[in-house]
Amino acid sequence: MDKLFIQGGKPLHGEVRIAGAKNAALPILCAALLTKDLVTLRNLPDLQDVRTMLKLLSQMGVSVNFPDPLDRTVVEIQAHTIAKAEATYDMVKTMRASILVLGPLLARYGNARVSLPGGCAIGARPVDQHIKGMQAMGAKMHIEHGYIQANAPQPSGRLHGAKILTDMITVTGTENLMMAAVLAEGKTVLENAAREPEVTDLAKLLIAMGAKITGLGTDQLTIEGVEALHGAEYEIIADRIETGTFLCAVAATTGEIKLTHCRPDTLEAVITKLQEAGLEMSIGDNWILAKMQKRPQPVSFRTSEYPSFPTDMQAQFMALNTIANGSARVTETIFENRFMHVQEMNRLGASISIDGNIAMVDGVDHLSGATVMATDLRASASLVIAGLVAQGDTLIERIYHLDRGYDRMEVKLSALGAQIERVK
Ligand SMILES: CC(=O)N[C@H]1[C@@H](OP(=O)(O)OP(=O)(O)OC[C@H]2O[C@@H](n3ccc(=O)[nH]c3=O)[C@H](O)[C@@H]2O)O[C@H](CO)[C@@H](O)[C@@H]1O
Ligand SMILES: C=C(OP(=O)(O)O)C(=O)O
To answer: At which positions is phosphoenolpyruvate bound (predicted)?
Structure first.
């Protein structure tokens, strides 16, 4: 199993190109199931979850083609026919986002069999809102032997529009229901919809495919179902979490880096907090120049739905706070178990205590390298940041979590001057 070996204490300098967003690419790949025509995607990130999703689509009989085999950022997907409308446990257990095939399969094919995702390191993460929403659109949903068996109403074999108010704001729930609704008969209104930029990015692709969706970027999406969608070419939005992760890295290590091909307008809450920490930034439409010359100031925050502070940046900011000049209070409101990195950071010399969903971080002068274990995707990223600032050597185990969601993170960090290498 791969590990990362880091010799900390090096400031970062140079330029990094930000990849396409994992959380936009995954639903967008599933959206290709909604048409028999060709969907060409650009700015695809080259990471494990994307490879898993492409494998899942291939298992369904979908054609996946990289026109230039050396360029993994452009892919052609064609779901001319769907041979098997199924996502097995083997696939779903490695990537929860596999649940995103449910809406498109049900809408286009009239039935689907998708393994229920189990709980995961960061929380229970049920999918009850996906199921209830599809039931409201007329689908028969049964859970049997750990699988969701979904069938569109007969004899039409087509879902019908509905007004759906989810109990909470759910990102993949909104995406799944939006994809189910685009081919339904009549109008669907999704109330309490997630406003994350990745939801809007999916909606834009669907519109390019001929879907009728209004309310983009708001908490009410209205979808007028159409009979069929057609192919499209689409460029996936930049990854705001990768962007934020590199910004936290330079804020922690000091130095000066330029991030290109990013979308600063999707990062307002993160940028505000980094300014509070002392990171100096010049910001263009698609680039950020970030400079840090001193020890960070502590930043307290509370995670919440977009446009508030993202839970996917909580761990990375925790790493920054460990070496800040004072104490910070971090409140996690989205997932019930997203402090798994805390114990590992304490092993590196951090001083963090947890009380329920609140972590109190007392900044220390320095961290000291040790062997630590990655437990989930963003926890891994936060340990990389901690390793980059720690004195001495840090070995991070179980980095397959990191590879799920980052496009060659250690290669990009090495190019910035970090002493980091992948070891077997
Ligand atoms: C692939 C992807 O885009 N993943 C993101 C997505 O995950 P994901 O879409 O799984 O997260 P949700 O927005 O659905 O979850 C928000 C909260 O709602 C709960 N819930 C959700 C659905 C449901 O049917 N029932 C239910 O109880 C969840 O357990 C969680 O406590 O949004 C999260 C919150 O921004 C991010 O951390 C993930 O990176
Ligand atoms: C939690 C995340 O992803 P997923 O929903 O795919 O587990 C994440 O991207 O931080």
So the answer is: 22-23
Q: Cα angle vertex 381, ends 374, 236, to 5°?
A: 125
Catalytic residue among 30, 120, 248, 262: 120
Question: Half-sphere exposure of residue 172, counting CA atoms within 13 Å on the CB side?
Answer: 22
The residues with which 255 forms a beta bridge, in sequence order, are 12, 292
Residue nearest to atom 29 of ligand 1 (CA): 125
CA distance 92 to 249: 31
Neighbours of 116 (CB within 10 A): 15
This complex has an ipTM of 0.99
**φ and ψ of 253, to 5 deg:** -90, -15
pLDDT in tens, 80-107: 999 999 999 999 999 999 999 999 999 9
Tokens of 162: 């509905």
51 is in an annotated binding site: no
Tokens 């000066």 correspond to 256
Q: Spell out the alpha helix ranges (H) of 60-112.
A: 89-94, 102-109
Q: Which residue lies with its CA nearest to atom 37 of ligand 1?
A: 312
Is 378 close to ligand 2, i.e. is its CB under 6 Å away?
yes
> Which bound ligand lies closest to the C-alpha atom of 164?
1
* CA–CA separation, 251 and 271 (whole Å): 11
pLDDT in tens, 159-182: 999 999 999 999 999 999 999 999
Q: Which atom of ligand 2 is nearest to the CA of 377?
A: 10
Length of the chain: 424
DSSP secondary-structure letter at 184? S
List, in order of start, the domains of the chain with CATH numbers: 3-19+238-423 (3.65.10.10), 22-235 (3.65.10.10)
| Residues 6 or more apart in contact with residue 335 via CB below 8 angstroms | 122, 123, 125, 311
- Give the span between the Cα atoms of 79 and 232, in whole angstroms: 13
